[in-house]
Amino acid sequence: MEHTSILSSHVNMELLLAIFLFPLAYSIILLCKNLLARRDQNCYMMHYECFKASEDLKLNTDSCASIVMRNKNLGIEEYKFLLQTIVSSGIGEDTYSPRIVLSGQEDTPSLKDSLSEIEEIMYDTLDKLFAKTGVSPSEIDILVVNVSLLSPSPSLTARIINRYKMREDIKSYNLSGMGCSASLLAIDIARNIFKVRKNALAVVVSTESMGPNWYCGKEKSMMLSNCLFRVGGCSMLLTNKRAVKHRALFKLNCLVRTHLGSNDEAYNCCIQIEDSLGYRGFCLTKKLTKAAALSFTENLKVLVPKVLPLWALLRYVIASRYRKKTDSRVLELVGAGLNFKTGVEHFCIHPGGRAVIDGVGKSLGLTEYDLEPARMALHRFGNTSAGGLWYVLGYMEAKKRLKKGDRILMISFGAGFKCNNCVWQVMNDLEDANVWEDCIASYPPKSMANPFIEKYGWINDPSASFIKLDWN
Fold first, then answer.
1. Would you call 63 exposed, middle or buried from its count of C-beta atoms within 10 A (0-12, 13-18, 19+)?
2. Can 346 be counted among the known catalytic residues?
3. Element (H, E) at 444
4. Which of these is catalytic: 180, 234, 348, 422?
5. Axis-axis angle for helices 354-364, 288-307 (nearest 10)
6. Tell me, what's the pLDDT at 1?
7. Is 3 among the residues known to form the active site?
8. Across residues 166-171, what is the average pLDDT?
9. Which of these is catalytic: 383, 420, 421, 450?
10. Is 177:415 a contact under the CB 8 Å cutoff?
11. Which of 146, 272, 311, 445 could cross-link to 182 by cystine, CB 3.0-4.6 Å?
12. Residue 118 has pLDDT above 90, yes or no
């Protein structure tokens, strides 16, 4: 009887042990499975290729003035406004204009002209991307193209697939209307597909259609885009293949997207409309910096815990209790008290304009050294919309700033209103001169003075208001 009781007790112990160990073992297996799966969900950038237009498309002071002068809708007040805007824009004399604008066809753009402009950018950068990486177009699994202001049929992705004879099972995505921050959005699409597809290759093409969207009217809020936006773009090769990560340029650590489309003021601050005369263009209102501040604030709430170390966060929380509350609607005050340099070495800011660069710089307490890449990209290439970030990154690489292990914070804003930011980790020491090769030695220039004021400063003379101007 006693032996039976002991045996029964032993069986019960084994049963209890089995009940306890089974879920533990199952949990360990699941954990290992998830950890192994996550290793294949990383997003690596293998290469990026920025577009550089031909020399005949350079928009210097004289060619820029001739474009302005042939707009018969403008008067002396509009000329004064344009002069002030161009002089303070931070843009130099070596940016590139759409071909149809330089040839005087901006008021009558054709579909053929529109497609020609975009295809030149896409095919030039893709040809170089495939040549430099040794990857065949037939190996590409995912294709994402973002061009906000041109959406033809067949789509731009279809045109690329046709030209390069890509596979029938390629996953293609054509994004339009997403604005200057669309490049990171396109990368996020590729990153999310990587989570469910192993050993995949993705190509992202980011550019904008400038020529057909040149504004020919006289509304000041719509003329701003002509002063800032220039031709440019970039193609990138991404992968989640662990076997090639040692050859990668960057690894995507995190990416956070913020959309304020439900806020009417933010939604309307950067919008494509027609003016009272029927001219279509992009309207940039004074509310833009406020929308940028609000979206940046919301984005940082999610991004900061992913980027900064715990001790820096605790220090910020403690210091905030004794600091006067800042206004989240003012861009310069958004990041007050945060020390981003505890988690990031480099800052890649969208070169949307001097005001954006200055605002983000003050917000994060950045130095002129930190802001130099964005300022120089704006000066040399202008605001190339979604492609702009990559000219900034190219400047850092050409200046040999990027070392293995460094982290880069990318900050972008776009219509909608959106703020999309991410952090890349440098995988190898980088020093490719890339698109900056022919001019990096002369940057930063000794003087950023704009020659417009010297040649056309007489427009501000009070007597000019009484002169009938005949530019012919």
1. middle
2. yes
3. none
4. 180
5. 40
6. 52
7. no
8. 97
9. 383
10. yes
11. 146
12. yes
